[in-house]
Design brief:
alpha/beta; Rossmann fold; GMP Synthetase, Chain A, domain 3
Length: 516
């Protein structure tokens, strides 16, 4: 298959009347369902509408929408024309949007009604965007209606001569380390993600993937590609809370749910407090829960397994530059090694190297590098950054890691987040993992701040579980029992831990808040 879009065409041919996607909006009591044939036809109509506007191979189309079936229709419609889809973070401001649009030099835009005001605030400053297409019921000046375009466009198949090496997606990183970086991905990258996901999680046509995280990111969508490649359905749940997740699994017979650490916390706490009882739902269909996008505290998985001892579990590691998750994963057969991110994924290689690019000894900390068919084409318009990050086909992740005697890889921390205190390295992720085991801690982040004597000191920002009282003395006593002296935070701050929509801790925000 040359493109990820070809998988959709194949499903429409082989399973035309089977359900492809379900969309749930619980507060509005809306349930929408679409078959593979209907989905493929609507995607083709979107593509033909864009082609009629003069959008073609190599053009860029901004894609700013909330999770929905429309989101995927627009995404596949864009890439079917040979244009590049440019999905945007739904938390971006109007200025963020302009920043991305200027870099992409986008020719058109498909937006949800939630973003009209943000777009209008900078629309006069965007000379390259010639066409605006609006999804939803709202009408706006100088925009076309997505539904009207679908209704009036041709359903004749589109053939623009795409190859696997053609670019199809310009993804802006979530921006936890500064301004979002544009990452260019190809059709080959997308197909690789689908093949890898299927190899890891054994999807069949009987599976129903409950899709929760933002589709603009290279996480949940690439996990869903494992269902796409076999023609299995998915359910898009737009309102995320523990009860909605359980009800969706029960009613839609969900089999796979990919969760972020905060959502697992929320479910466990609701169950611990007796606000949510798994016995009230038929969850026997739920075969796999997996987590990614951030370090996973082993204690969290252990708590989950007490409630769901028979459920499969996997840890996924990935990054946008590797077309999302899968370049390293734990594997559902390796649950005994929870705490590790695992080994190189299907069609991937992994090494841990020194600053000179040489393999480090077993157990030593170095930078994790990966190689495979999901490695990005380039950082768009940034050849210097591309050359620094990809060397001889190896992607330098910026993550510090170590490998045990069985070859399992453990994340230590981001290279740039390492705290050096009096010449000693402190890896915040390791400290966070220990602090997460405290029974009163809900969430935690550890960052370094400047110190005149030691260079840097570690600061722990702790979010206490609701209803619990936690003091600095309690945390210090806990650290004395569980952490080496140089690893203990020198300051404790009780506050909320900011996380982006994919669950990553926004450490630059914390540093800025603390005046660093």
């Amino acid at each position: 298959m040359a493109t990820i879009s070809d998988m959709l065409v194949q499903n429409a041919r082989m399973y035309p009347d089977d359900t492809a996607l379900i969309e749930l909006r619980p507060s509005e009591k809306i349930r929408r369902e679409i078959s593979w044939q209907e989905l493929d036809e609507r995607v083709t109509r979107v593509a033909n509408a864009l082609l009629g506007m003069g959008i073609g191979k190599g053009d860029k189309v901004i894609h700013w929408m909330m999770n929905s079936i429309n989101w995927l229709e627009a995404y596949f419609g864009i890439i079917r024309t040979g244009a590049w889809a440019v999905p945007l973070n739904f938390r971006f401001t109007g200025r963020d949007f302009k920043y991305c649009a200027d870099i992409a030099e986008a020719k058109a835009m498909i937006l949800g009604e939630e973003f009209i005001e943000r777009v209008e605030s900078v629309r006069s400053e965007l000379p390259t965007i010639e066409h605006y297409v609006l999804a939803g019921q709202t009408q706006a000046e100088n925009t076309d209606s997505l539904e009207d375009l679908i209704a009036s466009s041709s359903s004749n198949s589109v053939n623009v001569g795409l190859s696997e090496e053609d670019a199809c997606g310009l993804y802006f990183t979530s921006g936890t380390t500064g301004a979002p970086k544009p990452i260019l991905l190809t059709h080959k990258n997308m197909v690789c993600a689908a093949v890898t996901e299927k190899a890891h999680h054994y999807q069949t046509r009987e599976d129903n993937f409950i899709l929760l995280p933002p589709l603009y990111h290279t996480g949940a969508k690439m996990h869903w590609f494992g269902n796409l490649i076999v023609g299995a359905k998915a359910t898009i749940l737009t309102e995320i809370n523990p009860r909605n997740i359980f009800e969706t699994v029960d009613r839609e017979r969900g089999t796979i749910v990919w969760l972020l650490v905060p959502w697992v916390h929320d479910i466990l706490m609701a169950m611990d407090r007796g606000e949510l009882w798994k016995e009230d739902y038929d969850l026997d269909c739920w075969r796999l829960m997996h987590i990614g996008a951030q370090p996973v505290p082993p204690s969290l998985v252990q708590r989950w397994k007490k409630y769901f001892p028979g459920m499969q579990y996997d840890t996924n590691y990935g990054l946008s530059e590797a077309t999302g998750p899968g370049c390293v994963h734990l594997g559902i057969e390796n649950e005994r090694k929870v705490g590790a991110i695992g080994k190189a994924g299907f069609n991937w290689e992994a090494r841990i190297v020194s600053d000179k690019g040489e393999n480090v000894a077993q157990g030593q900390v170095g930078e994790l590098i990966v190689k495979g068919c999901g490695v990005l084409k380039e950082y768009y318009k940034n050849p210097k950054k591309t050359a620094e990050t990809v060397k001889d086909g190896w992607l330098y992740t910026g993550d510090m890691a170590k490998m045990d005697e069985e070859g399992f890889i453990y994340l230590v921390d981001r290279k740039k987040d390492v705290i050096i205190t009096g010449g000693e390295n402190i890896y915040p992720a390791e400290v966070e993992e220990i602090l997460h085991t405290h029974p009163k801690v809900y969430d935690v982040a550890v960052i370094g701040i400047p110190d005149e004597r030691l260079g840097e000191i570690a600061v722990a920002i702790i979010d206490t579980k609701p209803g619990e009282n936690l003091t600095e003395d309690e945390i210090n006593a806990f650290c004395e029992q569980n952490l080496a002296k140089h690893y203990r935070p020198r300051r404790i701050i009780f506050d909320k831990v900011p996380r982006n929509p994919t669950g990553k801790i926004e450490k630059p925000k914390l540093r800025q808040k603390l005046g660093n």
